[in-house]
Amino acid sequence: MSLNTTPSSERIHIGFFGRRNAGKSSLMNAVTGQDLAVVSETEGTTTDPVRKAMELLPLGPVVMIDTPGIDDIGELGELRVKKTEAILKEVNLAVVVADIGTGLLEEDEKLIARLEQLKIPYIIAMNKVDLQEGRENEEMPWAETTSVGTKETVASKSREEKILYVSAHTGYQLNRLKEKIAELGKKQITEKKIVADLLEPGDVVVLVVPIDEAAPKGRLILPQQQTIRDLLDAGAISVVCKDTELADTLEKLGVKPKMVITDSQAFAKVSAIVPKDVLLTSFSILFARYKGNLDTLVSGAKVLDSLRDGDKILMAEGCTHHRQCGDIGSVKIPALIRNYTGKNIEIVLCSGNDFPEDLDEYVLVIHCGGCTLTEQMMQRRLKHCKENGVPVTNYGMAIAHMNGILARSMEPFSTSDRNEK
């Protein structure tokens, strides 16, 4: 992936939700100007979420997601609805698409209640205005006179302000819909840094990137790419080397680096080489700060000291990838845990969107850095763990704690970094 390509996790995610045949796919195609989703008069045409990364001006890079109908039926329909529910936890904002001919029905109201519960901002797009004879050319919405817009149905001015009457077929008020999406989207953008705010221009930072059988061929993994870009934006000088070359690199630099950032799996080796007066942390811990909460994850790491035989740990990864023999999540960290605790610990793996709703069986969740997840999705996972009373930490913190260097790895961060989000 090019360093100039905006990763999906850094884009505003916009979901199109609603009942079957409300015109979700048609409206998303109209907004994007592309035939991304299959459109048909047959209900339930969209069987899986359809994603499109694009630029939506004036907002910027976004991911548009078309979803199956929230009123799908049957055994397969229930599975599709579950997929839609999973997308809810991922998006920054939602477009609730309703057929103006039927108005907001019970399923729509349940969806809106769920969005409000998750604190996801939303727009209600009353679609198919072109089928309402004589209405499309009116200048003002007709909330008082249609089946969807009686005062009893709208219920409040705040609800009215969220409603926009549109036509995917003719393009009526399509530009206004894009503007409203951009208005809401801009409010979701946070100017956060991975590491740049900890540095001054000209600071030297050494990045330690092990190359082993699990490393991707011909490229760096996403958190390494994003960190390098963040360092460039800060005006810092980044020096990249393998763990096997770190000692030689530090000797040849001729200047003491401000910070060393390592892949978590090389933490112990790197800590033994880097001088104590040089700041040391890992990519995973930087992303814990960037998208998670440091105090929560530090506390979770300490649970490793009290594990007992038979305890079950959930190893969660945000992305899906082919696991190799030296995989950090399924092989290296589980082996380190069993060696550190001396206990017979059961490890359960999950990846992608398959983060379980029921966490009762787990004593600890150990999550990856979440580089492929949006901040909102990572925050919701942490909140879900908290609500279920299950401690959570991440790869880098777990490894640092078991190597006795967690305190050192937290030295680059101030107290303000640890405030609960």
Give a structural overview.
With 421 residues, this protein is an alpha/beta fold. It folds into 3 domains: 8-187, P-loop containing nucleotide triphosphate hydrolases (Rossmann fold, 3-Layer(aba) Sandwich), CATH 3.40.50; 200-286, Rossmann fold (3-Layer(aba) Sandwich); 292-408, 3-Layer(aba) Sandwich (Rossmann fold), CATH 3.40.50. The chain is built from 15 helices and 14 strands. It has helices at residues 24-32, 74-88, 106-117, 151-154, 157-162, 174-187, 222-234, 246-253, 267-273, 283-291, 294-301, 328-341, 375-387, 395-402, 406-409; strands spanning 12-18, 50-56, 60-66, 93-99, 122-127, 163-165, 204-208, 237-241, 259-262, 279-282, 312-317, 346-351, 364-367, 392-394. α13 links the parallel β13 and β14. α12 runs parallel beside α14 (395-402). The radius of gyration is 24 Å and the shape is globular.
Outline:
This protein is an alpha/beta fold. The chain has helices spanning 24-32, 74-88, 106-117, 151-154, 157-162, 174-187, 222-234, 246-253, 267-273, 283-291, 294-301, 328-341, 375-387, 395-402, 406-409, and strands spanning 12-18, 50-56, 60-66, 93-99, 122-127, 163-165, 204-208, 237-241, 259-262, 279-282, 312-317, 346-351, 364-367, 392-394.
What's the main sheet like?
6 strands, mixed
DSSP E strands, number: 14
When the domains are counted, the total is 3
* Unreliable spans: 136-155
Percent strand equals 15-25%
Mean pLDDT comes to 84
The dominant shape is globular
Terminal CA distance reads: 31 Å
CATH topology of the largest domain: Rossmann fold
Derived structural class: alpha/beta
What is the N-to-C order of secondary-structure elements (H for helix, E for strand)? Answer: EHEEHEHEHHEHEHEHEHEHHEHEEHEHH
Q: Please state the oligomeric state of the protein chains shown.
A: single chain
What's the helix count? 15
CATH superfamily of the largest domain: P-loop containing nucleotide triphosphate hydrolases
CATH class of the largest domain: Alpha Beta
